[in-house]
Amino acid sequence: MSTSTPSSGEGREGRKGPKGHDPRDGTAAGERPQVRPSPLGLAGVALAAMFLTLLLIQTFIGTFRPGGPPPEEEPLLATGSPPEGTARIMVVGDSIAQGSSGDYTWRYRLWKHLDEDVGADVAFVGPYNGVLDLGGDGGGPGYADPDFDQRHAAVWGAQVKRLEEDIGEQVAEYEPHYLLLMAGINDFVNGGTAPQALEDVRDLVRTARVADGDLQVVLGEITPVRGTPDDERLNAQVAEFNMALPRVAEDMTGEDSPVVVARTSDGYSAADDNWDTTHPNARGELKIAAAFADALAGPLRLGAPYPRPLPDVPVGPQTRPKVSVAGQEGDRVVLSWDPVPGATRYQVLQRRLRPDPDEQVVLPTEVMQPGEGPVTTEVDHLLSGATYEFVVRPFKGHDGGRRSRTVTAAVVDDPPPAPRWVRIDEERTHLVWAAVPDATHFEVWRRPLRCAEPSGGAGGSAAAECEPLDDEGPGDGEGWTSAGVVSGDRRWAVDTGGARGAEFVVVSHRHYLPGEAAAPVEFAEED
C-alpha cells in the first residue's frame, strides 16, 4: 500500500510548480548566464543576445503564442486500475450507506454484484458491521440477508465534516484501495448549504490522502427526499450539490488518485425508491448499488457495470409474521406475533368466513412495533357465533411487505337468555316480550294449532277448541317455521299464517349465536 504524501495525488489543487534549477547545467542558482563571444564575432554575439532576450521573456511572461491567451491546463483523466490481489473497498457515509434493521443495504447489493456476479476479488473494510436497530432491542446486525462482507465506515445522522474527523485514521488502519463516499443530506437537514458540503467533501478527500496518496475515490450523488416539512429547500440543495460534484471530482483527481462520480440520483424517485422521507427501500438500494458499480467499472476498471434493466425487487419487510390467537373473550380476539425485522408498523386484515362470508377489510387501527417482546393487538366488535380469518402485513414506513398466513378464530360466547315473559297485548294485535340486555335481535317462530270446528247453540257460536301439535319447541317439534326477525324492538304483529289458531315462540339472539327460547304463547282467532 502506497504511503505517498498528498503532493503526489492532490490533483489540480496540489500539483507541483515549476522545477528548480538543474545543477547539471553548470550554473549556480541565482546567477545570470554568462555570454562569451564566439569565433563568429559580432554576429554571433548579436544572435546570442537575441536568444537570451527571448529566454528571459519566456521565463517571466510564459510561452509566447500569438492570437490569444495561453490555453488552460489540460485536466487529468480520472483513470485507475485494480490492485494486485484483493481490492479493499471502504464505504463511508451516513444512514443511507449504513441502513437500518430489515434492510439489505446498497452495500449488500454492490457486494453481491462484485463478488458473485462478476467474480471480482474484493473485501469491504471499515470499523463497523451493523445497521441501525429500529427496534431498539440490540438484537444483532439485523440485515435482511447477512451473507455478505458487512464492514463499513458509515454513521447514522453524520454530516460530511463529522466523517472527515475520522477518515484519516480509518484509511490508515484499514488500508482501502477504494473509498466510496455518499453523504451530505444531513448537512442540509441541519441548515447547511451545498457549497459548504462540497468543500467538506474536498477536505475529506484531502484528509484521506494524507494516509494514502494513491486512494481511488468514488463520490456518490445525494438522492432526493419527499415528505419532509422542507422538501423544496432540501431538494434544491441536493440538486446544486449533485450538479457541482463532477467539477469537484475533476479538481481533486491526481495522477495516482482518481476521483469519479457515481450517478446515484439518476432515475431515482423519492416517492418510489424511499421507504420514508429519505432512506432507500430495496428498489432504491439497487439503483444506488448499480451506480457505484458503474463508476467502479468505468474509469477505475474494477468489476463490470451493473446489468440493465435492473431487476424488479420486492419492497417492505420480507419476513412473514407468524400470527397466533393468544386469547378470546366475548367479542374480542387477541392476536400475537414476534416482531418482524425492520417493520415499523403492522396492518391487520379481517374477513368473516361464516356465516355470511364477507370481503376482506383493513382494520382502522394500525399496530406499532414495540420496543421489546411480542407484538399483540386486540380486535373487538366481532359478531358472536361467527368465524373470522385474520392476516397481518408488516410495513417499513410506507412499504408493505409479505403478509402472514391466515389464522382463524371462532367467536364463542354464552348464549343470551330467553325473554322472561311473552304475551299477546290487550288489543290482541301484537306479540310483545321482555327485554334481554345481551340480545341483539329476536326471532319469532310459529306453528299452527290443531283446532276443532267451533260448536254453539241456536243463534250463537263458540271459539274453536285448539291444542298444540306436540310438546316440543322449535328444532324438535312438528310444524315450526321462522315467522320473522325483530331488531330494535320487542313487538311483532300477530299473524297466524292463515290458520285459525297458532302458537308462538320468541328466541333471543346475539348476532349469529342463538339463545334460549321462551315458553310458547297460544293464540286463537275469535269469531
From TrEMBL:
InterPro entries: Ester_Hydrolysis_Enzymes, FN3_dom, FN3_sf, Ig-like_fold, SGNH_hydro, SGNH_hydro_sf. Residues 10-25 have a biased composition (Basic and acidic residues). GO terms for biological process: polysaccharide catabolic process. The chain crosses the membrane at residues 40-61. Residues 1-37, 454-484 are annotated as: Disordered. One of its GO terms (molecular function) is phosphatidylcholine lysophospholipase activity. Residues 317-414 form the Fibronectin type-III domain. This is Lysophospholipase L1-like esterase. It comes from Nocardiopsis mwathae.
